[in-house]
Every structure is written in C-alpha cells, then in structure tokens.
Amino acid sequence: MSIVAAACVIIGDEVLNSKIHDSNSRYFAKYCYNLGIELKEIATIGDDEDIIVETLQRLSKKYDFIVTTGGIGPTHDDITYDAIAKSFNLPCELDLDCKARMTNISNPESKLDSDSLKAHYRMATLPTGKIVENYYLADDLWVPVCCINKQVYIFPGIPQLFIKLLNLLTPILKTTYSIEDNNQDYVRYFVKTSFKESEISTYLRLLQEESSKISKNIKIGSYPHFGHGFNTVSILGTSDFSDYLAKIRDQTIERLNGEQISEAEEERISNDFENQGIKP
C-alpha cells in the first residue's frame, strides 16, 4: 500500500511577523508520524490571497492530504475561506447549517450589533459546491472542518481547536486514505556518536544509497548537538522493513562507536537550548 503524502499550510501574518509562535505544524508532524503519513512539506504564508491561491494550487497537484490552519476569523484579514475557494474555482456562501449551529451554541444575534454580526458571519461563509464537505465533529463547536475534494482540510489556527478537531477527524481520515491501525507505521532509531558530522558523512551517504535500493521511504539523517560533544544519527523507515532498519542500526552503532538513545531522549537534547548556547 502506498504511503499517504501530506502537506501543511500555516496561514497568518502574525506568524511571519513573530507575533505568535506556530505550534500547529509541529503537532501535525507528530500526528502524521504516528499514523504512518509522510509529511512532505510545511508552508508558512501570510494573509495574501494571491499567495494562498498559488500555494494551494501547487500543493494540490502533489499531495494527497493537505491541512491549512489560520485565517478563518471575523476580521478583514481572515481571507482563508475565500482564497481557498478561489483556488478551486468555487463560490463562498453563507452556510445555513453553520449559521444555525452558531445560533444554537453561542447565540450571537443576542450579543452583537448588525455590523458585528455581519463580521461574525464571515466565519460561516464557506466554500460551496459538490466537492465540498463540512465535518461537524464536536457538539460544543459550531466551526466545521471544511474539506475540499477529499484532499484539502481547512482548520482554525487556534492550537486548542486545531488539535481537538484534527484528532476528532482521525476516523474519517483513516477511511478516506485507507489507513489501517499498525499499517505502515514508522520505525525510527537514534544512534549517538562522538564522531563529527564531517567524519561520518561518507558512511551516511553510502548507507543512504544502499537503503534507498531497499525502500525509497528509508531516510538516514544526522543531527549536531552543539555543546553536548556528540551528534545523533537518525534511521527512519516503515515497519515493513523493521528487520532491515534494526540491522543498519546495529551496523551504525558498531561503525561509529555509538549507542542507541530513545526518541524522547533525542527530543530532550534537541530542545536543550541552554547547553547549546542558543536562546529560543
């Protein structure tokens, strides 16, 4: 079974001008990893219609599963729905189901004046057409995950909402992309070595060339850890090649005088900015 190829689009000027820190792409990367989905690209773009249209049209030609987060609020710069609709030559219209859910859950009509209410309904003005499906995944939320062509899934940018809706969408994604539990899971090993990256580069290049003949999905990488006195080698592949991955792990430990460390330990070291002399 072929692996699902995914992309993530983070939309918002506030990310590009450093007003907020993007955590959604990191969460999505872990989510894909756990499901055996291959995340191929993350794009961070501003609230610019032309750029959003260009990005979505480009990605939709390459990837099976695309998520967008951000830009679906009530203000003038929240243009994601309109821009993505334009990417697929679709109209954007006030969705009556979404409006009804708004009324039942938050009753904005009783709280907002006419101008504010008009702005509020921008969040219920969604891409419309035969290739559009709106998934209402939680009884306490009126916002849907708007899906276009069973390929592009539009999420809010608020991390708590993004995480909640993405996890609730999982059963639908598994059905859509024929993802089975424990099928095509990733296996990853980390090997710690005191050798410098320049000293191991030839070995890793040859190992990647050899591994690519076994499977194009096996990836060999190296990660420097300044201030710690060692580097790590990453060996990543799908579970159907687990025996081969274990073999090259053992080979790497022997060749580089290394030792295996856990994924949690590698993450802890990678985030240890103080010992690396880096201020986050």
From TrEMBL:
<feature type="region of interest" description="Disordered">
    <location>
        <begin position="259"/>
        <end position="280"/>
    </location>
</feature>
<dbReference type="GO" id="GO:0047884">
    <property type="term" value="F:FAD diphosphatase activity"/>
</dbReference>
<dbReference type="Pfam" id="PF00994">
    <property type="entry name" value="MoCF_biosynth"/>
</dbReference>
<dbReference type="InterPro" id="IPR001453">
    <property type="entry name" value="MoaB/Mog_dom"/>
</dbReference>
<protein>
    <recommendedName>
        <fullName>MoaB/Mog domain-containing protein</fullName>
    </recommendedName>
</protein>
<dbReference type="InterPro" id="IPR036425">
    <property type="entry name" value="MoaB/Mog-like_dom_sf"/>
</dbReference>
<feature type="domain" description="MoaB/Mog">
    <location>
        <begin position="7"/>
        <end position="176"/>
    </location>
</feature>
<dbReference type="GO" id="GO:0042726">
    <property type="term" value="P:flavin-containing compound metabolic process"/>
</dbReference>
